[in-house]
């Protein structure tokens, strides 16, 4: 039986209850019989029986020594990107400071403050606001009976509200202090539908939408588009409706389309007025034209390498019989296929992605006009690879044709016929085509096999990435107009494919060559790129020459910072930063610009940035908490929000106050026990009652 807090009466029977209960029943029966017969002294006997019964029950007074345990209150501060809008962050920090000082005044309360939604919390933090995850982590080691409640300082845009709100009631009242203003408005631009991939040369369809919140009567809005950092163009998009548009996929790799809608009359932030779509361009089929000037041992190497790639459509012609070779055989009896010169080099020339001349020399098969078409094809953006045979050192060289204006190296007329190992130059170790080739040893001789023939050339333009005999240029890469040209001053790569002296990296080298010629962004030699992994941005710059310039990064909220790059020996410089908000990050070194899109296409954090208590009203109703606007205090609508300690069964919130329940939990450090009926007193009382009863009966 509990009398007061920490004080109770305990029973310690002298005999087991199985014996006591029958004794009590017999005693009560005898007393009842005495009462029925109206015997004298029955009440004195009843008193004696009661005293003896109490003595047998042995009651004692138990006093517990209790040590109070502090209740725990958790304050969760919303540090997500949407808190950067207006005065929200400053208002939240000020309210946190005021609340902390007020709660420190309670001696029986332990305060825990946790920040949620900042960039350091991980990639999801910049896309969504998870306050309840942070709350659960903060009280993971606290029994629910010790929880006084929680206070959320937020703009109300919370994306992890539990579905089962009944469980929240166990932790006490959950109060919300809103950092925004009432009746806010904003405009946003969203991507409704966008494909992740598209075929190069074919447009993909996008669906975008402009919304005004709350809905206004604007008919349309101007949206500015900029693809891959190019010139801007403007379109009109209806407000509140899906709008369909096309995005041309101009090249392989990432095609980035930036979009920005004009500001509305009422705006909270321009961060959700901008968005970007990243479509990865893939080539349906790579059409390659391979022209072999004459049969030779390496011809099959080119064919096998190109045919091994299922994405390559190869058209291969070998000139077996030049026009000057006449033996009188009638044309109708020849089994050779006539070279479709006009169809390939005039009608369908622009359909090819890459043209390869392998050991070709002038033999009257291709008229000058068609060679001039190829030079023009390169100038307009085509790709040409020339593998020089013995003929390149003679007057029959392709350099003596209109193609000479796009060739990067001029023959001296000499050929080198002795063993040598191709080596990667210092520039080549910075060029993505030859950097890190398997078998290359920067500090020694490469491990691949030797070649035995090389045409001596003098480079005029481009970058020499590999040398041959006597450190003569072997592989030269050049940009000509909008196109690209690669020249290999030897026809001996087939030795590597045959495994001579261990072979070499011919497959990897030719793969990189073809991708560089096709302008794949991953193989750009002078390039600035940005890679996004969660909320981390890795900026990477490639250059053939050391580049000491720093990088400027502009955040979605138009803040700028300078990045210092760390360069390695391959010409690759990099820096990593943590993104603090979702959106488009612009990176530039003054010459080149790269874009990084952080977060989801339509991050919930920016979907609706208006401050609202709607998401947390259900939490407040279920737990007994309240939803209050901090801005009401600033505007003078009411005084500051007070904090009170309340009993668990009382109301936990009011118009200008919030309550944290006082649970009164404790630990017992000791117990003292005092008998209520001393033995001597009990015996004296019982004997006295019996004597008086006998005396009464004796009269």
From TrEMBL:
Please give the coiled-coil regions recorded for this protein.
82-109
User: What SUPFAM superfamilies has UniProt attached to this entry?
Assistant: Class I glutamine amidotransferase-like (SSF52317)
- Segments passing through the bilayer: 14-35, 42-62, 676-694
Q: Entry's Gene3D superfamilies?
A: 3.40.50.880
Matching InterPro entries: Class_I_gatase-like
Keyword annotations of the record:
Coiled coil, Membrane, Transmembrane, Transmembrane helix
State the name under which the record lists this protein.
Glutamine amidotransferase domain-containing protein
Native organism is Azospirillum himalayense
């Amino acid at each position: 039986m509990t009398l007061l807090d920490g004080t109770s009466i305990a029973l310690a029977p002298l005999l087991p209850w199985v014996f006591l209960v029958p004794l009590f029943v017999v005693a009560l029966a005898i007393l009842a019989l005495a009462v029925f017969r109206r015997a004298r002294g029955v009440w004195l006997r009843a008193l004696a029986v009661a005293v003896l019964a109490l003595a047998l029950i042995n009651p004692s007074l138990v006093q517990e020594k209790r040590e109070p345990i502090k209740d725990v209150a958790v304050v969760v501060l919303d540090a997500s990107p949407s808190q950067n809008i207006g005065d929200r962050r400053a208002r939240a920090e000020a309210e946190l400071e005021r609340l902390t000082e007020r709660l420190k005044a309670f001696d029986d309360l332990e305060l825990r403050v946790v920040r949620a939604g900042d960039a350091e919390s991980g990639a999801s933090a910049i896309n969504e606001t998870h306050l309840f995850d942070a709350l659960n982590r903060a009280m993971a080691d606290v029994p629910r009976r010790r929880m006084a409640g929680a206070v959320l300082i937020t703009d109300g845009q919370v994306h992890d509200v539990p579905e089962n709100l009944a469980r929240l009631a166990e932790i006490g009242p959950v109060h919300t202090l809103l950092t925004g203003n009432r009746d806010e408005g904003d405009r946003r631009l969203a991507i409704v539908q966008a494909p992740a991939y598209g075929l190069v040369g074919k447009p993909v369809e996008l669906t975008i939408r402009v919304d005004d919140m709350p809905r206004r009567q604007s008919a349309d809005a101007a949206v500015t588009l900029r693809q891959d950092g190019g010139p801007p163009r403007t379109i009109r998009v209806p407000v509140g409706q899906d709008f369909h548009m096309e995005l041309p996929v101009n090249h392989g790799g990432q095609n980035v389309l930036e979009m920005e809608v004009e500001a509305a009359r009422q705006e909270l932030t321009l961060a959700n007025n901008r968005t970007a779509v990243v479509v990865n361009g893939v080539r349906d089929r790579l059409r390659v034209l391979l022209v072999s000037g004459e049969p030779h041992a390496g011809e099959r190497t080119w064919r096998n390498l190109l045919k091994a790639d299922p994405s390559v459509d190869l058209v291969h012609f070998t000139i077996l019989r030049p026009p000057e070779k006449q033996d009188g055989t009638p044309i109708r009896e020849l089994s050779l296929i006539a070279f479709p010169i006009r169809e390939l080099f005039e009608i369908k020339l622009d359909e090819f992605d890459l043209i390869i001349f392998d050991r070709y020399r002038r033999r009257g098969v291709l008229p000058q006009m068609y060679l001039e078409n190829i030079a023009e094809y390169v100038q307009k953006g085509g790709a040409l690879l020339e593998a020089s045979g013995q003929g390149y050192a003679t007057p029959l060289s392709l350099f003596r044709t209109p193609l000479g204006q796009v060739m990067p190296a001029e023959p001296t007329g000499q050929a080198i016929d002795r063993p040598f190992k191709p080596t990667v130059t210092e520039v080549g170790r910075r060029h993505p085509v030859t950097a890190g080739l398997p078998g290359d040893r920067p500090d020694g001789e490469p491990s691949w096999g030797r070649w035995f023939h090389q045409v001596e050339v003098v480079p005029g333009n481009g970058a020499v990435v590999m040398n041959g005999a006597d450190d003569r240029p072997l592989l030269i890469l050049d940009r000509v107009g909008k196109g690209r040209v690669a020249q290999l001053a030897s026809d001996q790569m087939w030795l590597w494919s045959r495994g001579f002296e261990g072979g070499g990296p011919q497959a990897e080298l030719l793969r990189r060559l073809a991708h560089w010629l096709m302008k794949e962004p991953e193989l750009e030699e002078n390039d600035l790129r940005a890679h996004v992994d969660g909320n981390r941005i890795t900026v990477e710059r490639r250059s053939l020459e050391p580049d000491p310039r720093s990088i400027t990064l502009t955040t979605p909220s138009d803040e700028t910072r300078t990045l210092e790059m760390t360069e390695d020996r391959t010409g690759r410089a990099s820096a990593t930063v943590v993104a603090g908000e979702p959106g488009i990050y612009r990176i530039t070194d003054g010459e080149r610009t790269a874009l990084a899109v952080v977060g989801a296409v339509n991050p919930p954090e920016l979907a609706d940035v208006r401050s609202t208590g709607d998401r947390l009203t259900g939490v407040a109703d279920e737990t007994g908490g309240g939803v209050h606007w901090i801005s009401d205090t600033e505007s003078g609508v009411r005084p500051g929000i007070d904090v009170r300690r309340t009993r668990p069964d009382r109301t936990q919130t009011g118009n200008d106050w919030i309550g944290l329940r006082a649970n009164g939990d404790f630990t017992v450090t000791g117990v003292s026990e005092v008998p209520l009926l001393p033995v001597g007193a009990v015996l004296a009382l019982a004997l006295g009652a019996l004597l008086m009863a006998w005396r009464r009966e004796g009269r």
